[in-house]
Amino acid sequence: MNNWINFTKMEIFLGLLLYSIIAYLIGSMNAGQLLSKYKKVDLGKVGSKNYGATNAGRTFGKEAFILVFLFDFLKAFIVAIIFTELSINLTYNSGDNIFKAVEDYIAIAVFFVVIGHVWPIWFKFKGGKGVATTFGFMLAINWIFCAIGGIIFLIIFYSTKYKVTYSSIGAVFSIALLGTFNPYLSDGWPLFDWSQTVTAVVIIWLAFILIVYRHQTNLIILYKEHKKKKKSKKKDDSKKIKKEIK
User: Were 214 and a residue from 1, 9, 129, 205 both cysteine, which residue would form a disulfide, CB within 3.0 to 4.6 Å?
Assistant: First the structure.
C-alpha cells in the first residue's frame, strides 16, 4: 500500500474524482431498468415498485432474478478489480501519478458503484435498493466474510418466512461487523491490500447505513404488520379468557 505523504492532496483528489465518476456511471447501468424496458413492464410501478433483483424475480420469474442479481453483483466487483489493476500497474512518470496516488482509497471509488445503482443518472435517479451491488463491493473487501453474509442471509430468509428486508440488512450488517477486523487479518483472506485500510472499514459501515436507509419504507410496513398481529393476538387471547370464565 502507498504512503499518502508521497502524493499531494491534489493528486489524491483528482485520482479519486476520476475513479468515482467512472464507478458512478458504471453503477448507473441498472439491470432492473434495462429489463423493464426490454419487457415493456415498468418494475417501478409493479410489486414492491423497485428495480432490484427481488422485484424482477417476483415479476418476471427466477431467470430474471438471477440475471439482475448477477449483473448488479458483478459490476461492483469487476470495477474493484479494474481499479486495483490500474493503480498497481500504471507506472508512468515513475509511479508518481494520480492512479497510484489513489491506491489506498479505492474503497471510496468502488462505493460509488453502489451509489450509482441506487440513484442512476441514466434512469432519472430511480434505482434498486443496492443489496446485490453492496454484496459485490463486500466480496472485494473479503470473500470469506461475503460468503458468511450469504449464509446468514439464507438463515434469516427462511427463519422469517421469506422476509427479504430482514435478510438483506442482517447479512450486510454481519459482513460490516466482520469487515471491521479486516485490517488485522493476514494476507489471503482479503483479496486486495486497499480493503485492509481504515478507509475501507468506514466505507463498509456507510454501505450498511445506505442499505438500512433504502429499506426504511419496508421496515415501517413490517413494523406496522407486526404491531397489527400483536393486537389481533391480544384480542383473540382476551376472547378465549372470556369464554373460559363463562
Answer: 129
Contact between 188 and 93 under an 8 Å Cβ cutoff? The reply is no
| pLDDT per position as a tens digit, 140-187 | 999 999 999 999 999 999 998 768 889 999 999 999 999 999 988 876
Contact 220, 202 (CB under 8 A): no
Written as one letter, the residue type at 211 is I
Contacts of 44 (CB under 8 A, 6+ apart): 36, 50, 51, 126
Predicted TM-score (pTM) of this structure: 0.84
Compute the residue count for the chain.
Answer: 246
| Cα–Cα distance, 220 to 204 (Å, whole number) | 24
Cell of 25: 456511471
Q: Are 138 and 207 in contact (CB under 8 A)?
A: yes
For 80-106, write each residue's pLDDT tens digit: 999 998 888 766 555 566 777 788 889
Q: Given the C-alpha cell 460490516, which residue does it identify?
A: 176
First-to-last alpha carbon distance for the chain, in angstroms, is 77
User: Do 104 and 203 touch, CB atoms closer than 8 A?
Assistant: no
